[in-house]
Amino acid sequence: MEVENLTTTVTEFVLLGLTQSPELKYLLFLVFFLVYLMTWLSNLTIIIVVITNSHLHIPMYFFLANLAFIDINDSSVTAVKLLWDLASQTKTISFSWCIIQIFLFHFTGGAGVFLLVVMAVDWYGAIHKPLHYLTIMNQGVCTGLVIGSWLGGFAHSIVQTALIIQLPFCGPNILDNFYCDVPQVIKLACVNTYLVELLMVSNSGLLLAFIFLILLISYSIILVKIRKHVTDGKHKALSTCAVQIIGMSLIFIPEIFIYDRPFKKLSVDKIVSVTYALITPMLNPIIYTLRNAEMKNVIWRLMRRILFSRRK
């Protein structure tokens, strides 16, 4: 079929969502509203705590606050549309907004992935060069690394959306998902998308798998160095490293499952999508603060200060 003989007639897509049951939709709305609310409250708390406490103005907490900012934005890209559809019983999204959602989802998601790489580099520097760590990871370097993460996410997202936009869509227009994403949208194109799918897998799946492998190797080296060379605070360092591995795995493993294979529908795809699009942004603050005594103490002090000020 010739691409030039086709015109884009699809103006909107129909999202099948998570369920077709009207009764279950209201329950899901309540569940995901609470998830989204917790995502905002927990991540916003981290951002406020880091900004308002000068002794937390060090690279680790600076990157953690930026990860919290990314989690808020990443979750909002999918959660707002999902909640609106569940509450209003609407199922459609315009072609333009679908493309914008794909762009924003991969923009924030890509920035988050690259920031995890930065956090691994930061942790390696703290363990490998403790005496020169703050000199090497100064404010300018940290800011540059965060900007680089966003630029990396932007470049990744531009490639994703550019490959989608150039495809003709003339029907059908039903997406079996609760948001627009590449694996579902690409299957609705009116041409053979085999080559485009390979490019998509290379840009998303293989890149994710490669970065995940590099991070696993890096953290393995860090763990070995901690066990052999760190004496003071060894338990805290091992706990911090283990927490970062858990947080990293919750992001990479579901995404690799979705993007690092041919774009064929599996029954668990929606569950996996919910995990990394909605649940992980809520869990990240818990994971990264659960074993961080300093952050927990500051948060408790802030909460007590707020409660006592209201009682007066």
Automatic annotation (TrEMBL):
CDD domains: 7tmA_OR4D-like (cd15936)
Localization: Membrane
GO molecular function, one term: G protein-coupled receptor activity
Predominant cellular place of this UniProt entry's protein: membrane
GO cellular component, one term: plasma membrane
Keywords for the protein's UniProt record, in alphabetical order: G-protein coupled receptor, Membrane, Olfaction, Receptor, Sensory transduction, Transducer, Transmembrane, Transmembrane helix
Pfam families the record matches: 7tm_4
All residue ranges annotated as the G-protein coupled receptors family 1 profile domain in the record: 42-288
Record's bilayer topology term: Multi-pass membrane protein
TM annotation in the entry: 26-51, 63-84, 99-121, 205-226, 238-259, 271-290
Domain of life the protein comes from: Eukaryota
Protein name, UniProt field: Olfactory receptor 4D9-like
Species the sequence originates in: Alligator sinensis (Chinese alligator)
This protein's encoding gene: LOC102373104
